[in-house]
Design goal:
single chain; 719 residues; alpha/beta; eight-stranded mixed β-sheet
């Protein structure tokens, strides 16, 4: 049940959460109508999700530095959104092709995005400038928000500028006819408006210069000397503005404002069909640095004449203009110095190793008896690392196969695979070079593995491999195969395994082992995919099996039984599969969706009256994909790598596996139910794309799913 707060800040509180009538206006153009069904527009839905991230920064029950980190996450998310999604829309609006949008529709979508981002900026300013910064000051941290500082800091600031910053600063005249200045992607710049000292401002001709802020050379946050028990911090750009007179002798600085650009980051290699994929990726990675401009962000207080000069100088289109605040690139706030306040890490659940593995002393020995589900970040990712290490040193191991989509730098996973190769094991790694923003790291690790003797398979032209699978083929001395398979929802990345909630199944099930062998055979020869007895794979059996299970729930409901599904994923966009859910809802099937991000399904309408959508944003990124079908009291549970996006369901290699063990099914079902019961960090998505918080009512127990499920797993491991 929903319970809205009622106190003296009621209006501001709930308006910040998008649940006043204004919120209905906010997303009034977010719906696409097709026949009798309705669908939220993908990009507007994503903006609703990112706004939910921003709402965490407004949660005063969280440690202050965790709230600051959510500002950073919100900003980083928006940067990637512009570099990928908005860049694609701009390309279509300029005459490019798209299966779903016309040029006119793409242009209209960009206008809607701009309007919504501008509206969200108002809340971001309120939360940061009028909430977080004053609270820092209340806690003895003076975080200057302009160049005006206390007199006792002036000498230090000037010395820091002269010694630490000035050597890296190069003023560039902004004169299009004389100097062709180039703006680097996502770099911060300050534009200066100057007058000669012997000119009168009203009659003199202004000159414009820009300076790139050297955040790649020095920390953006400058810690000033403590004073009277207080800690002082200042933005680098404010130090530069404060001391900039030294850079422009003979001139008077009239004003100075920040700006930046974002460039198209989509290197478009999915549809390449010929040539060497490695060389093409290397070539296109270089082009990313000079990609087309997709947005120009500027300080909203910038005078019109300066903005016009920048637009002219850099050939900026009006539709590329995006309002910013005085300080841009707030993703850097994730590195804000903390002089001692509590942060999120001090209270988050710490990953633990189930005692059963300590008792067994061997992952393989345990898996020989039963399957195991690894729930990260609650369970330690060391379980998987130990699995690989044991495979690398086990005499019975003959071959190891694994996919690599996003791997950590200096990865322990890669080190374990290299150890296996050096121990005489045959190791094969499929490396997806088209994992956006991880292409360079994947190339580097692939070359490192090749040098160690690992067989590397690279991307399939026109198809991304997104499956998270590993296979250890073993053969005992008596010749009997005793192999193990792993199918997961998240990447083999020990860094993200600490902050993403994912699930992985370890099993010796012969059918699943054989299915993975077939999948790797396909990746090796890039030919016929073959038949799968347990795995669900796009282009083979995934869509057909999903529809079959949905039809089964419909049949049960029509016969008067309980048709029920719980579908958890990061995003649901494919209109064909959403229509299947609408059809099931109309037949009386109850459907609970747990969707973190994009949700194009519209709840709360006649055709979706039996569907609810829950969104959870908390300490960990909800990343697992889990599908539950009631099946007349004999539940079917699946985990895997795909969301219900068109790209995942039709254009990628994905892997979904059934959870066969009744005991393990119970763990997953418990996780799903506890997430649906969350009344602390869960929101319902309504028919207008608003995030409606669920609150405890009339003494109802508080349920915070991530923390409560951790306690459940920890308690169970002690049994």
């Amino acid at each position: 049940m929903f319970l809205f707060l009622k106190n003296d800040i009621f209006t501001a509180h709930i308006q910040a959460r998008g649940i006043l009538p204004e919120g209905i206006v906010r997303y009034s153009e977010a719906i696409i109508m097709k026949d009798t069904y309705r669908f939220f527009k993908r990009d507007i839905s994503w903006l609703s999700f990112n706004y939910r991230v921003l709402m965490e920064a407004d949660d005063k029950s969280l440690p202050l530095y965790e709230r600051i980190n959510f500002i950073a996450i919100y900003t980083s998310n928006l940067e990637e959104f512009y570099k990928v999604r908005v860049a694609d829309l701009k390309a279509v609006a300029s005459g490019g092709t798209d299966d779903d949008l016309t040029a006119r529709e793409a242009s209209a979508m960009i206008d809607q995005i701009t309007a919504e981002v501008n509206r969200q900026m108002e809340d971001r300013i309120r939360i940061y400038d009028y909430g977080i910064v004053p609270e820092l000051a209340f806690n003895g941290i003076i975080f200057y928000q302009d160049e005006n500082v206390e007199p006792f800091q002036r000498e230090y600031i000037q010395r820091h500028f002269d010694e630490e910053l000035y050597p890296f600063l190069q003023p560039v005249p902004l004169c299009k006819d004389e100097v062709r200045a180039f703006l680097r992607d996502n770099r911060l710049y300050v534009a200066f408006k100057l007058f000669r000292k012997d000119d009168h401002r009203k009659s003199g001709q202004p000159r414009y210069f820009m300076v790139e802020i050297p955040c790649d050379k020095k920390s953006r946050f400058i810690e000033l000397p403590d004073h009277d028990g207080k800690h002082y911090i200042m933005y680098m750009e404010d130090v530069i503005r404060s001391c900039a007179g030294n850079m422009f002798p003979g001139y008077t600085i009239d004003c100075a404002y920040c700006f930046k650009i974002s460039r198209d980051a989509d290197i478009l290699i999915d549809d390449e069909t010929t040539g060497g994929i490695v060389e093409k990726v290397k070539h296109k990675l270089k082009k990313r640095k000079i990609g087309a401009v997709c947005r120009f962000v500027y300080d909203r207080h910038m005078p019109a004449d300066m903005l016009e000069h920048l637009i002219y100088t850099f050939d900026i289109k009006r539709e590329e203009l995006v309002l910013g605040d005085r300080h841009i690139n707030l993703e850097d706030l994730s590195g804000l110095p903390n002089p001692g306040l509590p942060d999120a890490s001090s209270r988050k659940p710490k990953p633990f190793m189930p005692p059963v593995f300590e008792k067994q002393g061997s992952v393989f020995r345990y898996l020989s008896r039963k399957d195991f589900l690894m729930f990260c970040p609650y369970h330690s990712f060391d379980i998987f690392l130990n699995f690989l290490t044991e495979a690398a040193h086990d005499e019975a191991t003959k071959e190891i196969f694994i996919t690599q989509y996003r791997v950590a730098e200096n990865s322990s996973v890669i080190n374990s695979l290299i150890s296996a190769a050096r121990n005489g094991k045959k190791v094969t790694v499929f490396v997806e070079l088209k994992a956006r923003f991880d292409e360079a790291n994947n190339l580097n690790t692939a070359e490192q593995m090749q040098k160690a003797g690992i067989n590397i398979m690279y991307s399939i032209p026109g198809l991304k491999v997104h499956a998270k699978v590993a296979l250890v083929l073993r053969e005992d001395k008596d010749g009997k195969a005793k192999s193990f398979a792993y199918v997961g929802t998240g990447n083999f990345n020990e860094r993200t395994a600490c902050v993403y909630s994912d699930i992985g199944l370890f099993t010796k099930n012969k059918y699943i082992v054989d299915d993975l062998r077939s999948l790797f055979d396909y990746l090796k020869v890039k030919g016929y995919m073959g038949h799968f007895r347990r795995l669900l794979v796009p282009k083979v059996n995934l869509i057909g099996q999903l529809k079959k299970m949905i039809d089964n729930e419909i049949d049960i409901a029509r016969r008067g039984g309980k048709g029920y599904m719980i579908l958890k994923m990061n995003a649901i966009q494919d209109e064909a599969m959403i229509s299947e859910l609408y059809r099931a809802s109309e037949a009386g099937v109850k459907i609970d969706l747990i969707v973190r991000g994009i949700c194009c399904l519209v709840p709360g309408r006649e055709f979706s009256r039996n569907i609810t959508v829950t969104r959870i944003v908390d300490s960990f990124l909800e990343h697992s994909r889990v599908w539950y079908f009631e099946n007349g009291g004999k539940p079917k549970v699946y985990i895997g790598s795909p969301d219900w996006m068109k790209r995942n369901l039709y254009k990628r290699v994905e892997a979904v596996v059934p959870v066969m063990s009744d005991e393990l099914k119970k763990d997953i079902i418990h996780m799903l139910h506890i997430q649906l019961a969350d009344n602390v960090k869960a929101c319902r998505i309504d028919a207008h794309l608003n995030n409606i918080f669920k609150y405890p009512h009339n003494g109802e127990k508080r349920v915070r799913a991530q923390y409560d499920f951790y306690d459940y797993l920890k308690s169970k491991s002690m049994e």
